[in-house]
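Record Small ribosomal subunit protein mS26, 217 aa.
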Amino acid sequence: MLRNLLGKTTIDSLSANGFNISYNPVCVQSVRWRRKPRWIPKAKTKIFRIPNHKPLLPEETHEWLRINNNYKLQMNSVRAFFREEVMNKKKLIAQGQTPADEEAEFERCKSINDEWNQEIANIRDARYARIMKKRCEKLETSLDHLERIKELQMTKIEERVRIQKEKSTTFITRKNIDQAIEHALSNQVDFNFSIDLQGNIYKGDEKPGSVAKKEAN
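=>
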């Protein structure tokens, strides 16, 4: 498995450099290819450890300072040279242009900018038009739905009103209260009755035996 991942050439080169690479897929030795990341803290065994820096010889220090100074001097010279070249080119360009040329260049850039702004404005207006159209269609659909719901509610209300009007003919009012009283007195209804399992009705104080006698008579 390790041979398939790394390849025979890589494994052979690592083995030649002193790494103990085994071909056994069960025993795999990991190789640390990078340094410890900066966000990982210092090891506890090295927190209070002060490394002893080897002092440099005076000859080495003098040579290091000489090389460093030469490098800085050369780099500063190169930067100054390029800076001077850029300034000279700017002066030549400025000398070759007249105020009329500058004005024409400004107008050309301004016209290009205006064209870009107009193109973006057209795209924005088209997008706003599409959005408003979708919103209007959605509002129209919602209004139609609300109108249908309102019509259905009005139909139900009218049906209820019609039923109540039909029932109002039997209501007792101040005008027909006397007639209602006379009708109730002349047509008395006795609600004191019971019904057996066979469906026989027993009114008042009647008993099952009296009903049988009536049926026999």
